[in-house]
Amino acid sequence: MSNHISVVTEFAPEVQSNRKSEFPVNPLFLNRWSPRAYSERKVSDEDLNTILEAAHWAPSASNDQPWRFIVAKTQEQLGIFHQFVNEFNMVWASKAPVLIVVASKKVRGNGDPNVAHAFDSGTAWGSLALQATLLGLVTHAMGGFDREKARQLLNVPDELELHAVIAVGYLGDKSKLPEALQARELPNGRLPLSEVVFEGTITK
Ligand SMILES: Cc1cc2nc3c(=O)[nH]c(=O)nc-3n(C[C@H](O)[C@H](O)[C@H](O)COP(=O)(O)O)c2cc1C
């Protein structure tokens, strides 16, 4: 259990040479990145439960907890998910041992629309990704999937919106990726903070 709550104190080697924060932050935030090279190693049910547990402790408007996670981890379940992930993602995502559809409930218990459902579910996915990093796992969100096909194949009701498919697994050998993807298999950067943070009023 202790490794689930351990504090990350070191930047990963590939992060050290590619990412720099302007202000100090725990290395955990930079160590999370979205690789495409997945190893064959399976994810234990214990670790899978831990990342989902972390996700569902996210804050949400009125504590409505609109997030829903549909998990594929058996060959049969993965085979169904592979039918709706876009071709350009399947090139690498077919190797991921776990895929998770992140959905959210658009209506509250009383039937009113929940305007915060997407915001809240994004927060939950962020927690999932950070907890995965703490466990030595990697994650990669994909918006590139056929939502209608997913809805049909997974029997998803209309009141749920489908946001992303998340690949979860362990970092693998990038030489097994197609060349164009090998070149992109590095942590990327961020805009300067001054382009996204404004004081008092928005100035750009
Ligand atoms: C909602 C969402 C959809 C995304 N869709 C895709 C996708 O379809 N294919 C892909 O390769 N990456 C996808 N990404 C990954 C982003 O490109 C990546 O998170 C971004 O470049 C930042 O890099 P980092 O996650 O390594 O920090 C998606 C990320 C998010 C959050």
Automatic annotation (TrEMBL):
Biological source species: Paenibacillus foliorum
Molecular function terms from GO: oxidoreductase activity
Record key words, sorted: Oxidoreductase
Cross-referenced SUPFAM superfamilies: FMN-dependent nitroreductase-like
UniProt cross-references to Gene3D superfamilies, sorted A to Z: NADH Oxidase
Protein known as: Nitroreductase
Tagged with keyword Oxidoreductase: yes
Domain Nitroreductase: 31-77, 91-170
Family in the record: Belongs to the nitroreductase family.
